[in-house]
Every structure is written in structure tokens, then in C-alpha cells.
Amino acid sequence: MKNLYIFIAVLFIPWSFSLAKYDEFEDGDDIMEYDDNDFAEFEDVNEDAVTESPQRIITTEDDEEEATVELEGQDENQEDFDDADTQEGDTESEPYDDEEFEGYEEKPDASHSKNKDPITIVNVPAHLQNSWESYYMEILMVTGLLAYIMNYIIGKNKNNRLAHAWFNTHRELLESNFALVGDDGTNKEATSTGKLNQENEHIYNLWCSGRVCCEGMLIQLKFLKRQDLLNVLARMMRPASDQVQIKVTMNDEDMDTYVFAVGTRKALVRLQKEMQDLSEFCSDKPKSGAKYGLPDSLAILSEMGEVTEGMMDAKMIHFLTHYADKIESVQFSDQFSGPKLMQEEGQLTKLPETKKTLLFTFNVPGLGNTSPKDMESLLPLMSMVIYSIDKAKKFRLNREGKQKADKNRARVEENFLKLTHVQRQEAAQSRREEKKRAEKERIMNEEDPEKQRRLEEAALRREQKKLEKKQMKMKQIKVKAM
Amino acid sequence: MADPRRPGKVARDKPPATETNPALEDPTPDYMNLLGMVFSMCGLMLKLKWCAWIAVYCSFISFANSRSSEDTKQMMSSFMLSISAVVMSYLQNPQPMSPPW
Q: Where is this chain compositionally biased, Basic and acidic residues type (chain B) (predicted)?
């Protein structure tokens, strides 16, 4: 519906323009003879002067030629006037002396030579013409808009077809693994909608839930913006591909504590910078996976070697090697909290919430020129996802690994606390001051003087006790130091 | 293979994109909306035809990139504003637009 309204509105613009223009050309005058109303006064002056007066006026407006042509024009005009005059004067010349016409002897010669001078027709500038051809910029603009609309419709339909092709290919596998396939969050009961949830013209979501080990799985089909012409043109310079992003939220008891990632080197470098957990726990640069038989294009980021050893079993290596061109990144993390949040100093008072997550990003083959058939090639990758879920549940760190992991997490937390120590101190101080102030106010507001006195004494006693405690502590520290 | 499905353990989809994510994800429609309004005001006030035309393009681009959760009212209002800027520029000055070269 939206498209229809816009299409109709856009059609109105050129139509209104064409209507406006045709009104002016109803009588079908010759363009050369048609003058603006401003210059209409010259129309009736002289029949011969009609063709030349626009020339004269236009040449006067044309600054460059004003000096040279104006005189010519004026001369010619005067000649015409004089011709008419002399014609009229022939009958009336009798009462006039010939002496009066002495200065005009050269004129008849000039009028003869006028016939031999070629008439230079100056081009009328475009902004003074009134044909629709002069509106070529507008026509260009409207054509551009129409092209944009056409591209929008075509791109939207293509994305839609790709999304449905993907879903039809994967539906069976998903339905056999998940009890709930498709949920847009609007229904009261948790029933499968069995449909993709369209967020955008280029993003489609699918929520699957109801399986052992995992809380749920969110699949996002992030297609290229085929509906936006600017994006299409930008992609001609820099090719990109459609992506399928899968985020599996694991149950707390079904995944051990580790952070691990594998993917293309470029993607891992970017993730290491952006993602909170990868930057904190995987401090080394991405290592090559050649040791495990992975192709050179893939690299590994891991919290500790044991995790890599555990993750890289035969089946996983098989998956990664065969579909390396489609894998952008795979991330298993128990401390996943999304990308690093750029917060101000004062606001960071506690660690962001973490969730045990498996993240997969796959590139659809075709580098933008995908067809619905390409979606079938992504099916094995979904099998890999399912396998990874089961593997993450089965994989447990041994004692050493667990100790290391716990140490790492404690270290990260300590660092964070140190950073925010100052803020927390300030917050505690302000809270204490607030309490004191509230108490003082209470004392002041107390009407009974007896009660007031008693409350004041109680507050004083409390203060003294606190001071004593502090002094004791200082003494103890001094003794210990000694 | 045992059936891995557990109908009893179904969790509802809680869309995570609430407060921070819409701004993080893609600012294009918002920028284009703003640009479109700025250009259409310029076109109206300064009577510049090319400003008005760019405003129309901006509102189209903003519409194409918009999220489904966004208000259609906002889209339509920016679109109408840019169309009115074009129409007003031409009503005031019916001469064709001259190219900048």
C-alpha cells in the first residue's frame, strides 16, 4: 500500500508540469514569434521589427554582445522606422524642405547594404525558452526517482524470495530440532508461527526454542540492501555478501566456562576489538589453524590451548574445512555481553550482564548475486550449528583448565572493580552524607525538645563510637606493620 | 536418536533491540530523514529548486532504509514536506532548473 501511494504521488508531479506547459501552447504559435508578456508591447510596433526586436532585446540583455550588436540592432531598427517614415514621407514630403533631409543621404545606401548583411539569429538562452525540452533537468530528476522506485520494488522482492527459499530449505531441520519455530513475540501463548519475522526490507528474523541444552536460537538473515539504489551502486565498488547470523543462548548448566572463536582473520581481528569478552579473555592475536588442518583463511582465538584442543575434534574440523568459504566467524563464549559499550566514566558502576552464547556468522555464496538455489548450500552449516550445541554441552574443562578459567574471570572482575573504585567510593560517600543530612533534619523537625535532646545525644554517641572504631583499626594496622 | 525437542522448555522471543540497539544498528534512515527536512526547508526558504529535489531523494532513501517498527507517519510527513518544497519552488518560479555547470 505504501508503495502504491508513493508511486501515484510521484506520477502527479510530471503530469501537473505537462498540464501547465500545454496551456501556454494552445494556439500553436511559432516559438520564435511567441514573446513573454513583458515584451508584448513591441509586437504591434512594426511588422518588420517583430523578428528583430526580440533580437535587439535579447542582445541587450546579453552583456557580452551588448556593445557591438546593440548598435547594429538599433541601427537596423532605426532603418526600418526610417523606411516606414520615408514611405509615409513620400506623400507628405512636399511641405518639407529637402535641406532637412541632408543628413540622411547615406541612409538609403545603408538600407541597400542591409539586404546584403546576413541576419544573425542569436540563440535564445534556455531559461527564457518555454518549451518542455528546456526542463531536461527536471525530467532527469523524475527519471531518477522512477528508477529508484523500480529498484526498490525489484530489490524488495528479491530479498523476500531469498528469505523464503532459505526458510523452505531449512524448515525441516529446524522443526525436527526445535519445538517452537518462529515467534514474533506478540501472541499470548507460545505457538509456532512457522514464518519468518520481517524486521526490515533486508533483515528477517526467526526465533526457535524448545530444545535440550539451549534456551533458544535467534537466526537473522541479514541480506544486502537491494531495495536502496545508493547501496546497490556502492556495492558495485565494494562487493559484499548476504549474511546469516545465528545466536544460540545456552542454558547455564549446559556450558562450561570458556571463550573461543574461529573464523577469517579479518573478522577475528575486528571482533577482538569490538567484542567485550573476546578483548578481555583472548588477549593474543588470532593464531593460524594450520596445526589442526584448517585452511589458511581461517584463524583461531582462544582463551587457552586446552579449549582449542577440545573444540577441534574431527567432525568440527571437517565442517570448518569443507565450508571455509562460507564461514565468517564462530564464537563460543560464556561471558558474552555484546559489543563494547562506549559509556561515560561515571555510569560504569557494574559489569554488563553476560550470557552463555554460541554465535555463528555465515556468508551466503555468490557475493551479492545470490539466487534462491544458493540457500541449499547453507543447510550443512545449520547441521554444524546443531552439532556445536550438542558439543558445547558435552565439552567440559579438566581441573587445570577450570582453575585457569576461574582465575581469568576473577582477574577481569578485579580490573573492573579497580577501574570503578573511585566511582564507587564517591557513590558511597554521597550516600553516607545523605543519611547524615536526613537524620539531622529529623532531629530539627522534632517538636518535643526532650526528644530532640535525646536524639542529638544518640547521634553524638554513634559518632564517637565510629571514631573509636577507626582509631582501633589504625592501631591494629600499625601493630601489624611493626 | 532421541528427539531433542523439549516442548516444555520453550522460551519466548524477547527482542533485544530495545534501548541501545536501534541507534547502534543503522542510523541511515534517521540521518536521511533529518537531511531531507533540512533540504526541504532550504528549498522553501531560499527558493532553491535543487535543494527541494535533493529533499525528495532523501525522503525516498530514508523510506527505503526504514525499519518496520518505525512510524509511517514520520515517513509520510517528511515525504509530503519535500514534495511541497518542490511544488512551491516551481509555483514561485516556473523557469526550468539550470544545471550548475
A: 1-16
